[in-house]
From TrEMBL:
GO molecular-function terms, A-Z: metal ion binding; triacylglycerol lipase activity
One GO CC term, this protein: extracellular space
Signal sequence segment: 1-17
Residue span(s) of domain Lipase: 33-347
Protein name listed in UniProt: Lipase domain-containing protein
Positions annotated to bind Ca(2+): R205, D207, D210
Domain of life: Eukaryota
GO process terms (BP): lipid catabolic process
CDD domains assigned to the protein according to its UniProt record, in alphabetical order: Pancreat_lipase_like (cd00707)
Amino acid sequence: MTMLLPWLFALLTVALADQVCYQPFGCFQSDGKEIKTPQTPDVVNTHFKVFNRQHQTTPYYNLGGSNWLGSMNKLDSHLDPSKKTKILVHGFLGNGDNDWIRDTTKALLKKGDFNIIVVDWRGGSQWPYEQAAGNSILVGEELAVLLSYIHSSGHINYADVHIIGHSLGAQIAAQAGESTLGKIGRITALDPADPGFSGKALDKRLDKSDALFVDVIHSDGSHFNLLSGFGTKDAVGDIDFYPNGGEHQPGCSEKPVGSALNGILHGSFGNAVDSFSCSHSRAHQYFLESLTSSCKFYGHQCASTSDFSAGKCLGCPAHGCPVMGYDADQTQARGSFYLATSTSAPFCGKEYYVEVHVSHALHTTYGELFVTLIGTRGTSEELKFSKLLRYYHRDDVEKNVISTHKDIGVVSQVKVRFVRGHDLHALGAAHEILIGKVLVESTENPNVQVKICGHDAHIHERNTITLSSHTGC
Ligand SMILES: [Ca+2]
């Protein structure tokens, strides 16, 4: 027994060391892996900045510093209780001056006469991720304390509060929603952070109980590998949108280390996260575009990415498709919704379902295809058709939903370009691809399919051919 006592003492010390308490925000534990205990509130140094239509670029009031709890009444007096409140929260490596926060603030104020509060926790959002993740839980509790105060003073209704958070900011929104006594109105989670949160108990991560309505945009849900995959793939909201499958966004080359270093070297460390993970940042870009564009990101209910790519979920029901972004709350639909976007801004476009049938005569090759659609109303930009480099065997059929910048009407011709891969997989692969036919349909009219025959046309690597025949295949 006496031998055990030092052991017990050691274990107790570890347990205590893995918990910190910062009243009135509560006590915080490490999970021993991806979540460290938070740094002190002084280090995290959270600021709450109030903006409105008269003060869109510099804060009307900036609450922060070591005595901010004693000054909550001053923030309070800068809110208009007759207006709804939008709260913006940045994520890992971000800060309250990030372009997307500034641009979204202005776009929201154009949309409506809101109180805007920007939560700036740059003191706690930096490397390493595990520390930022731990700090985010403290920031969530700080926000909950502030909201509870403003609510008790009669300056907001919880139901009129809408928190928009990116990455760890979405988990901060969840924590705040969890810890306020009344339910807040809405959380828009922009690629909510995955490591340290996915799979945890509901009170430790974003879920649909954190607000009356929770909408989620998944843009970087691939498996986390320190370079990408920062977002969760799990459906965690009332409504979850998976643009382009939700794992990897078209137009993102995902060369994170070099791009991030470039950002840091050029003094834009705060924006380094944007280059660090292009797909992760697309979520807030899509949300911002939903505020400023008349084009709608229509989502199609579907069981999986592969079903969507295979054209099984095209079209919209009679009551319409839900819309990703700001108008996501204008629907009664619930579940997982899929859509395609363009590869560059503006991202919202016109979706087409395309099938490429490889010829029976093909010798196996390895590469990727790009297509340009030519229709009655114009020509699309060149669109990346293959999601990744892949093998093409004889009689293969590749299916995908792609999005063009503009409505090109009924498609009559298609240009196909073949780019052969040059890695080890390409050893022995043919230097050309042969096309049997291409089928195209607009997602709005899934019953109208255009067949364009390839007649086993050969496309040599890096070459493009235009197909326009509609007979003989
Ligand atoms: Ca929760």
